[in-house]
Amino acid sequence: MSLLQLAAKEAKILSSTSHDSNDNAISESLDNNSSSCTSVSDNIEVGTGTDLFRDDGENLTITLRMLHFCRDLAIFCFVMVTYAALAKDPPKVSRAPVAYPFFPQTTILTDWYRGQISKAIENARSSDVAFIMFYAPWDAECQAARKEFQLAAEYMHERVKFAAVNCWQPQSECRTQYNKVYRWPVLIAYPPHGRGIQYNGPVTAFHIIQFLQKICNPIMRINNEYPKDFDDAYLIAELNTSPGSLAFAVFYTTALRYLEKDPQYRITFYVKPSNVSQPSLHLHLWNETLIFPISDLPWHPDEILKWIFDNLHQVTSWVLPSGSKSTTLSTNMQNGPTLILFTPRNPLRVRTDYYHMLQEIGQEYHNCEENIIVNIHSMNINSKRSDDLLQYRNLKSLCKLTQNISNRRIISYMNPVWSNSSSCPERKLKKDCELVIKKSINHFCSSLKMENCMEIVPTIMENEHICNSRTVNFPEVYSTSLLTGIHDPRSAENLQKLFQKEKCKQFRVAEKIQPASFEKANLNGTEINISGLACKTNKSLSLLAMDSLLHYYFAQKLGINLNNNTDKSAVVILNNKMESHYILQEPINGVSVREFILNFTKNYLNRSFESDITLNLTSTMHPIYKNPKQEKSKIVLNELNTHTFLPSVLKENEAVAVFYYSKQCSFCNGVAFIYLTVAKKLSYVKNLVFARIDGENNILPWEYTMETYPTILFFPTKWKSESRVFPSGIPITVPNLIGFILTNLDPGLKLQAIWSICRQTKFPEEKSSCYSTLLQETLLLINSILKDWRISNERHKQALLHKLRQLRQLHLLFAHSSQSHGKIQEYFNKLNSYTNSNGDYHGIQQKSRSRDEL
């Protein structure tokens, strides 16, 4: 319905309403004023309805005008926007920087520095195992990982294909697909089948090599023997391993995904081939064996991994801090005291003997019920450690013989001329020929050293074409591939040689990283039993191990220099609640660690005061010069540490002010300037020493440990137990700090401190006022000593008389020769030296009064 129709309808409705006289009068006046509406008023009854109709007509006109205006405005805006869109230049966007190779061109890996991720993955999938580094060229961690990635590629390039992709290049394929990566680099290994496995361990070459070796061989086969190649726990799956087995595929995928979720590799995966219809899975822990509930849970990698991590518990474990701010250590140490073993965890060596020693101790320590399973597990640890030592020695001797493989001579009996059995028709001739060749070879090998003889001919000759005539001509020693007659590089013999070669290669590299360390034999024969000790005390220890090659700085914070130890190992107990730690000083072995744990339980250990500050004791003095050319401007502060604190503050005949600060305290910097200003003003007081100490990094006895920083502690000359702390409610300013020190000084040193302040006053009025105060203090001190002299015995009167003489001379100098600094200093030295040799004033006064009272 249009607006006109609506208005007509309203007028018709209004015309049927009643009107009064007043309305007629108003309508008549309106009709007289407007002649254009006469015809309309004649046909419509005069009244209120006519007036409303007129008002509605005006509203209708305004509405129509507004509609036309809006339409025109919309058309105008559309035209202007269209014009602006056509006339405006395209946005000016800077071009992406030119991509450049991140890795050297001579490297063995492929660098897709333009971000071609599809080509990189396609090329990686063409090999059995591939390892790709997704990087950002500007990232510092990527730049640090570049060299490690190259070293890993040089070591593993024969088995793994290495590649790198620039995933930060703008408008590249990789950047378009993965634009929400918040940390670089991202390292992903691609096995032959399935999705990629991300590497989350330390970005070092040898840890990457360890990860890739486990990717190549995530599962080990086992028959009926007891496994020994594991660290904390192991998993045995008994299932059908025939080609196309779904159960084996699930278990294989589980082993690969486990490497992604646990960088410490605490669990070793074993498979036991069996012709069974339903797989079974056993998780062997230190005190129990758990069976996977296959009837309740589906046989799926996610379910298996969840079940493993929910049930995994152990008495010892490796701690792997992330290298950034994290709560890894606090989570492990918040439940109570913790024993930490710092020892190298060589990634190229399967097991660590010191860690297995800690496992053995931990199982004994937590063996509350003396379970048979625990004892069997402990015995297996002992046998495993013995086997490790034996294998290490054998491998060391074997690899030492084959370390110069390129310089060794290979002995061969093969004749370069091809001959058949007709060359030796007579069987007797054949036997004679074999005998002569054997004797010749034995004679030749006897002239060589054992390490120079690489290959020995077989004792049984299967071929009859050895000799081609009655006269045997022996060939010279030369290299040949016909020693075994097998040209297949994947034959059993060649694979065994390759396996041995790889073992020796890995052994030599592992020895370069860190030689293996084994527990020294117990020559004393003493045995300490800590069986079930964790259940008999409320100070139960958590046993952790930390790689000293990666996390040596944690040991340094505790005052342990691992470089001083050949095995780079140490044992420490941390009690976070008591804010103390204890360091094992004896050589590390099973007896010393057990005794260390037992002494801690019985509170026999002394708290260690070592920290990273105590590792470097060469610089204890830090002079701070305001003006090196002027001796009076030099300020020397003693930088104290754990070892020098008590000898310095408890030194007799010296008053010591100590400034406690922390490197994390920003307010300490402002207070340090005030402290230096006061030290400069009191620099002429000979027996007043100003020092400072880092209270956060230096471990002090409890009575000298401060909870807040900055804190100023003052030790008087004689009564060291009467030390005072600067009040916390008073602001630390130069006048307040000077007043605090003067209040706690002995009378003689107080007088010298006031003179030191007056000496450095520059303005004449202030200098005159300062010396007036000094004269008053001198008279007060003389008056006090005279009172003591009257009540003293004859023994102390001579000492007090000597002091009165020195004070009299000082008073005269202050009044008449205040610029005679040399003489004033001389009398102060005499006063202080006599005081130091005969005791302080208060002590003399107290002793004399007590004797008089007696």
Which key phrases capture this entry?
21 strands, 6-stranded mixed sheet, alpha/beta, 854 residues, extended, Glutaredoxin
Form type: extended
Number of strands: 21
Tell me the Rg in angstroms: 47 Å
**How large is the share of residues in beta strands?**
5-15%
CATH architecture tag of the domain at 621-745:
3-Layer(aba) Sandwich
Distance linking N and C termini: 125 Å
Tally of helical runs:
25
Biggest sheet strand line-up: 16-17-19-18-20-21
Please give the CATH class of the domain at 621-745: Alpha Beta
CATH topology of the domain at 621-745: Glutaredoxin
Which structural class do the helices and strands define? Answer: alpha/beta
Task: Describe the protein.
With 854 residues, the protein is α/β, with parallel strands linked by helices. Among the domains are: 3-71; 110-211, 3-Layer(aba) Sandwich (Glutaredoxin); 411-482, no CATH class; 621-745, Glutaredoxin; 755-853. Helices cover 44% and strands 12% of the residues. The strands form 4 sheets. The protein has a 6-stranded mixed sheet with strand order 16-17-19-18-20-21. It has a 5-stranded mixed sheet with strand order 1-3-2-4-5, sandwiched between helices. Helix 12 (353-365) packs antiparallel against helix 13 (372-401). The longest helix is centred in the first third of the chain and has 40 residues, at 48-87. It starts with a helix and ends with a helix.
